[in-house]
């Protein structure tokens, strides 16, 4: 023990000497001697502290505290140690300070106790976090162990609680923001949901409510108390919002209690008053505390709810007594010295509702007020907003608020009963029924259902509901409604008495009573009006009339009374002016006055005031009266939709008019005029199929009033004919117009429509290629125009149609002899000064004299064509005169004249009237002038510029280009203009620009044939003949039948291809031949293409047609040569004769063929003619003459001709073969030897010539020359593998080889023949000739069936097999059905017929 004391003394001395390491050693020595030495631990802790060894120091102090926890020395050491660490150990610091302070308290040392606490709190504030500062401040709180001892020396609890509350507020705010920021980034998180969850978590565990409550309890400052009472209520309310519904009840009670306290104190905190007023779920407004409402108004005079409350309390519908002026505050008196007007009251309440959009009470009061003012739309809107507010508040508070919800729902339903009735009746009925399920005797709901049933004309049930309402209320209004329902149900006598009784009970001067009296007086008048419908009774001014006037005296704004007065004045008072004023007043007051609106609309329609008709109809539609509610017995109203549709039809708003008429037809599906209006709307909008169906439906309804003379049933027929015309069904349209004219023969517009349909139908037939029908239609149109001109001869449409009808004959020139010249002459000379025809006469030479020179009866096609063209020009000039006062029509008339002049130019009538070789341009120049006049009148028309460009293409290319460019500037999507521009570039040899223009035209309209024609011409210039032919073919396929240019180029390119490809099928010649036949009907004297047509006819074996064409061509060329003596014409004449001779040969008219050949040879003797053409003509003539003589048995002459042909061609192998055949046929040995020599020479000189080899093989077989046969056989074997042989040649090769094998083989002849046939099949299994040969040698059915299959695939269009070969393949099966097929394919051959035997 002594050693411990010695060590302690030494340690104390070392500490005093600041020798801290020695002190540590001595303290350790003391502890070694006495481990429970308190002082040694204290000295050791102090020494370590001085050395900066804080952890060792703390350990030593803690050891000392464990030995003596009530001794302050060690605790002071710990406090000093923690204090030096600058807030790093504040939590341990807190515990040490509290322990030391408690020791000082036990020793009654207040000063040191307070000093320790204040020093600690200061360090926490200086170094610690908000949480640590809050923890430090808790030592001052009343619930701490030191508060009672230090009370008065430490801060007031309210102050401390306030600081802690501020810290907690900041911490919670930071936590909420941090958590929201972290959670919102999670997958699928929504910001509103995340915010609610975070706030719920934070607020449920918050201490703020306790802190606020403590502040309220401990503070002595009333202002601070009220401030924290507000915060407490707000905090509790915020917490209530975040809680789930099951937890809301307890919190709601707490919030309500807090709010009640503030309201009792009349503290101006808005939330408290809101909770008190909004959560007060009262059934009736009478249950409200008027004093509380007025207190709210006085405390919050500028709040929105206060404005609504003030307006309501001062209104007539308020159940609370008014405040006398003497009791008002002076401030209120200064602000409002008198009672508020109704307008000011409504403005005040409207401003208030905007300022408190979430107030349930405000919406409920304003909805009731709107309902009293009969502002049903505003009442419904306000009630809907109120229900939304109720749902929100119910969700917040957890209260059902059912009474408030029901009250607002009743306001909504009552408003919907009247607003746009009956549109919203189903919704109102659902609301009333829902309320009655909870409150079976709710008077308002019973009345509402009664009103709905009354509107639905279900009067019996309506009376029942009104009687149920009367059981709880004896209001005169309900009695009057019940009586009125009885009147509407037919019981006018008893209902009249009941209404008069009700009227006596309606006393009062307020607005609602006056309005009710007015309504009752009107209903009494209507009962009297309907009780006796005689004219005298209704005219009596002391009866119903007097009640209507009394109704208006009671309420000048009661609309139905004005309607009834209007009916009285219109039908019985004979005062249309007053009636119209009454109807206007009624409709101004209420758009639901349908009767007044209908009479007004009819009046406005009669006077042509369509804008007013539209306004009236639209208002009626918007009123909701036109459509009935589902299940209602009342019929809908269709006339507003029909009237609106007519207005929209007149203003060309066809889409809207379609909708309007459809709406009308949903209500009245048997309305004839609505169907007609709908059809006309569809027609004008281009929906012709739908228009057809609408007019057909209208015609079905005509049966119901067919005998009614007031119905204009013809109009639907007329419009249906118009639709047929637009659809291109001209025959049906013409029949329709004729039917209309039977009903209304003097209808000029229908006659013009028929005339236009005839003309358009004629042009349509031209496009389809029915030229005879086109001529018939044009001729009929001219006769009809003659009839129309007798009625009215100054119509632009009439003369335009006449001009177009005459122009049709220029497209079908072969039918011009049928032109009714006499009718045209009478038509053009009737009712006009001939000076009208002198327009442009100085240029085109067609004037009044031209009209007087027409004659009937000529069969000359050229003369008739001239007549038709001149008549067309005169008719278009007459059209210009007919529209002299209309700028647009005059521009169109000049445009039409321009095209007619241009048509005259390209029709060639100028060449017919002159003998000069120079082509005249007078009609073309007149066309240019006409187009210029059109452009002067309407410069923005792209078609006019395009036409000018076409007309000036030959006259002035620069002007033409400018015109096309200008047209494209106005409309760059016009394929015709691009094609015309490309044609101009093509004429000017600018191929690149031409190609670009044609390509642009094809992109604008891929189906425009002329663009493809232009590309074909361009390809032909670039020597790409295959591409040109393909383009011409495509153009021909997509073009109509009016274009002659396309037919010409298509026929020429096809013939060139046929010439260059002899193996092509004859079916390829059909389409060009049809095209040339159409061309023959369209164009006069086109001898070149007539000649070409004969060549196509010859190739398809139509020899009769070819002969007739060639006879005509030869005759015309002979006439032309006699006139011109042109060498070119002579060559063409000779060629025609040579071709005629060849066709006659094919026709087996051998003598005529020989004569024609000799004529051709005679015409072509002149060596000055074109050498190449002369050579072809003479060769053809020699060959034809040789064959003709051969078939006549004149062998010598035939041989002579063939020898001459050989001389002309210098040994052509084909001619050698023909000559050999003729020599062999003559039968002499010498001739046959010559034939053999010729064939050997031909084979030698022309190696591989098919015909020569085959003839030589046949001769060798006939002669039995085996050596020659073997040589020829090798050549034939080589031929059978060549690709350039057609089906017929291959078949002949196989037949010859089979014959050789059968005749000269050492084996069985049949087997040898089958071997050759089998070899042919192996070499070409897809060809029919091998299979056919094999079938002829075999008894099996399979080769014959394969022959049919192969022949079918080789037939056109997939191959070039001839019809006779296909028939032979079918006949080879030896079946009856195939024999019939063979006859069908080629009835002129014997194969099929033999199979039938």
Automatic annotation (TrEMBL):
Repeat positions for TPR: 443-476, 638-671, 714-747, 975-1008
Family annotation (InterPro entries): Ski3/TTC37 (IPR039226), TPR-like_helical_dom_sf (IPR011990), TPR_22 (IPR040962), TPR_rpt (IPR019734)
Record keyword ATP-binding present: no
Keywords carried by this UniProt record: Repeat, TPR repeat
Acetylation is among the record's keywords: no
Signal peptide: none
PANTHER family cross-referenced by the UniProt entry: SUPERKILLER 3 PROTEIN-RELATED (PTHR15704), SUPERKILLER COMPLEX PROTEIN 3 (PTHR15704:SF7)
Descriptive protein name: Superkiller protein 3
Species the sequence originates in: Stereocaulon virgatum
């Amino acid at each position: 023990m002594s050693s411990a004391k010695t060590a302690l003394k030494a340690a104390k001395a070392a500490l005093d000497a600041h020798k801290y390491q020695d002190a540590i050693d001595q303290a350790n020595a003391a502890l070694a001697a006495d481990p429970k030495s308190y002082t040694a631990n204290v000295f050791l802790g102090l020494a370590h502290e001085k050395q900066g060894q804080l952890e060792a120091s703390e350990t030593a102090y803690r050891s000392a505290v464990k030995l003596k926890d009530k001794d302050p020395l060690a605790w002071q050491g710990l406090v000093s140690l923690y204090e030096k660490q600058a807030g790093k150990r504040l939590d341990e610091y807190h515990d040490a300070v509290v322990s030391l302070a408690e020791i000082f308290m036990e020793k009654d040392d207040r000063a040191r106790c307070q000093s320790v606490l204040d020093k600690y709190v200061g360090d926490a504030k200086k170094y610690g976090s908000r949480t640590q500062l809050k923890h430090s401040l808790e030592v001052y709180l009343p619930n701490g162990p030191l508060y009672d001892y230090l009370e008065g020396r430490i801060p007031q609890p309210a102050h401390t609680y306030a600081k802690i509350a501020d810290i907690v507020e900041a911490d919670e705010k930071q936590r909420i923001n941090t958590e929201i920021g972290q959670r919102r980034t999670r997958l699928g998180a929504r910001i509103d949901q995340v915010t609610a969850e975070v706030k719920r978590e934070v607020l449920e565990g918050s201490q703020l409510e306790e802190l606020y409550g403590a502040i309220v309890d401990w503070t002595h400052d009333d202002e601070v108390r009220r401030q924290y009472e507000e915060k407490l209520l707000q905090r509790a309310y915020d917490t209530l919002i975040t809680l789930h519904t099951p937890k809301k009840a307890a919190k709601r009670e707490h919030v309500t209690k807090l709010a009640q306290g503030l309201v009792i104190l009349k503290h101006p905190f808005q939330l408290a008053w809101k909770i008190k007023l909004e959560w007060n779920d009262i059934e009736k407004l009478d249950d409200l505390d008027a004093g509380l409402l007025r207190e709210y108004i006085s405390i919050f005079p500028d709040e929105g709810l206060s404005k609504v409350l003030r307006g309501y309390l001062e209104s007539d519908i308020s159940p609370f007594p008014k405040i006398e002026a003497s009791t008002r505050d002076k401030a209120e008196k200064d602000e409002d010295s008198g009672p508020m007007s109704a307008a000011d009251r409504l403005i005040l309440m409207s401003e208030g509702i905007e300022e408190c959009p979430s107030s349930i009470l405000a919406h409920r009061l304003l909805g009731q007020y709107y309902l009293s003012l009969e502002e049903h739309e505003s009442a419904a809107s306000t009630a809907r907003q109120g229900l939304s507010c109720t749902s929100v508040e119910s969700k917040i508070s957890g209260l059902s608020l059912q009474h408030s919800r029901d009250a607002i729902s009743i306001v909504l339903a009552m408003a919907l009963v009247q607003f746009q009735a009956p549109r919203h009746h189903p919704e109102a009925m659902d609301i009333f029924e829902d309320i009655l399920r909870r409150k079976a005797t709710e008077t308002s709901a019973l009345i509402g259902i009664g009103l709905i049933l009354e509107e639905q004309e279900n009067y019996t049930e309506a009376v029942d509901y009104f009687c149920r309402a009367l059981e709880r209320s004896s209001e005169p209004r309900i009695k009057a409604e019940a009586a009125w329902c009885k009147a509407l149900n037919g019981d006018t006598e008893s209902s009249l008495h009941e209404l008069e009784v009700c009227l006596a009970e309606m006393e009062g001067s307020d607005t609602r009573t006056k309005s009710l009296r007015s309504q009752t007086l009107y209903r009494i008048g209507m009962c009297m009006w309907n009780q006796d419908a005689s004219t005298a009774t209704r005219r009596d001014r002391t009866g119903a009339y007097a009640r209507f006037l009394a109704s208006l005296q009671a309420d000048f704004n009661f609309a139905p009374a004005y309607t009834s007065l209007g009916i009285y004045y219109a039908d019985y008072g004979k005062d249309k002016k007053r009636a119209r004023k009454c109807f206007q007043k009624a409709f101004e007051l209420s758009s639901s006055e349908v009767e007044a609106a209908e009479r007004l609309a009819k009046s406005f329609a009669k006077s042509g005031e369509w804008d007013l008709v539209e306004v009236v109809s639209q208002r009626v539609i918007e009123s909701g009266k036109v459509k009935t509610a589902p299940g209602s017995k009342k019929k809908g109203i269709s006339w507003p939709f029909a009237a609106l549709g007519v207005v929209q039809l007149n203003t060309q708003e066809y889409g809207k008019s379609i909708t309007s008429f459809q709406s009308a037809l949903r209500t009245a599906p048997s309305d004839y005029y609505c169907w007609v209006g709908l059809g006309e709307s569809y027609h004008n909008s281009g929906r012709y199929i739908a228009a057809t169906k609408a007019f057909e439906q209208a015609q079905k309804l005509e049966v119901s009033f067919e005998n009614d003379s007031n119905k204009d049933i013809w109009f639907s027929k007329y419009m249906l004919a118009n639709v047929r015309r637009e659809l291109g069904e001209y025959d049906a349209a013409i029949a329709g117009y004729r039917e209309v004219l039977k009903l209304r023969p003097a209808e000029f517009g229908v006659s013009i429509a028929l005339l236009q349909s005839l003309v358009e139908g004629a042009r349509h037939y031209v496009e389809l290629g029915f030229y005879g029908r086109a001529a018939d239609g044009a001729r009929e149109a001219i006769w009809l125009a003659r009839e129309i001109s007798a009625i009215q001869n100054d119509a632009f449409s009439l003369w335009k149609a006449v001009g177009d009808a005459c122009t049709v004959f220029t497209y079908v020139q072969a039918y011009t002899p049928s032109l009714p010249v006499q009718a045209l002459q009478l038509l053009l000379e009737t009712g006009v000064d001939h000076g009208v025809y002198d327009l442009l006469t100085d240029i085109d030479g067609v004037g009044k004299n031209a009209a007087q020179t027409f004659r009937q009866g000529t069969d000359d096609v050229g003369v008739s064509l001239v007549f038709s063209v001149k008549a067309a020009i005169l008719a278009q000039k007459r059209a210009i005169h007919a529209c002299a006062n209309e700028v647009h029509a005059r521009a169109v008339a000049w445009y039409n004249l321009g095209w007619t002049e241009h048509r005259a130019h390209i029709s060639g009538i100028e060449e017919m009237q002159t003998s000069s070789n120079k082509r005249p341009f007078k009609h073309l120049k007149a066309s240019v002038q006409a187009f210029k006049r059109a452009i002067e009148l309407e410069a923005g028309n792209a078609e006019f510029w395009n036409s000018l460009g076409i007309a000036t293409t030959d006259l002035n290319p620069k002007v033409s280009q400018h015109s096309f460019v200008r047209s494209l500037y106005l409309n760059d999507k016009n394929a015709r203009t691009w094609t015309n521009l490309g044609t101009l570039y093509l004429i000017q040899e600018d191929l690149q620009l031409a190609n670009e223009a044609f390509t642009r035209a094809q992109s604008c309209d891929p189906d425009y044939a002329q663009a493809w024609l232009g590309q074909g011409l361009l390809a032909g210039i670039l020597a790409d003949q295959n591409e040109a032919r393909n383009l011409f073919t495509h153009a021909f396929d997509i073009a109509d039948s009016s274009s002659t240019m396309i037919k010409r180029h298509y026929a020429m390119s096809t013939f060139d291809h046929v010439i260059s490809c002899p193996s092509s099928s004859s079916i390829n010649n059909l389409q060009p031949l049809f095209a040339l036949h159409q061309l023959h009907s369209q164009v006069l004297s086109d001898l070149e293409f007539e000649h070409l047509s004969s060549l196509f006819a010859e190739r398809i074996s139509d020899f009769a047609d070819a002969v007739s064409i060639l006879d005509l061509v030869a005759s015309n060329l002979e006439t032309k040569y006699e006139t011109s003596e042109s060498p070119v014409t002579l060559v063409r004449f000779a060629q025609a004769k040579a071709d005629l001779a060849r066709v006659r040969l094919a026709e087996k008219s051998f003598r005529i063929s020989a004569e024609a050949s000799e004529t051709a040879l005679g015409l072509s003797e002149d060596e000055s003619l074109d050498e190449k053409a002369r050579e072809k003509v003479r060769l053809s003539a020699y060959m034809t003459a040789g064959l003709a003589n051969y078939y006549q048995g004149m062998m010598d002459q035939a041989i002579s001709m063939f020898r001459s042909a050989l001389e002309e061609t210098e040994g052509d192998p084909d001619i050698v073969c023909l000559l050999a055949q003729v020599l062999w046929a003559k039968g002499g040995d010498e001739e046959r030897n010559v034939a053999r020599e010729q064939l050997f020479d031909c084979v030698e000189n022309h190696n591989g010539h098919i015909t020569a080899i085959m003839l030589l093989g046949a001769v060798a077989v006939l002669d039995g020359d085996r050596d020659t046969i073997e040589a020829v056989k090798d050549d034939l074997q080589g031929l059978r593998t060549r690709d350039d042989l057609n089906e017929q040649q291959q078949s002949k090769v196989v037949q010859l080889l089979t014959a050789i094998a059968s005749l000269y083989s050492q084996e069985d002849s049949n087997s040898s023949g089958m071997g050759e046939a089998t070899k042919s099949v192996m070499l070409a299994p897809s060809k029919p000739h091998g299979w056919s040969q094999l079938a002829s040698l075999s008894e099996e059915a399979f080769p014959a069936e394969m022959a049919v299959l192969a022949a079918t695939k080789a037939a056109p269009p997939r191959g070039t097999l001839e019809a006779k070969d296909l028939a032979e393949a079918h006949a080879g099966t030896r079946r009856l059905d195939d024999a019939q097929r063979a006859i069908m394919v080629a009835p002129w051959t014997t194969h099929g017929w033999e199979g039938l035997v």
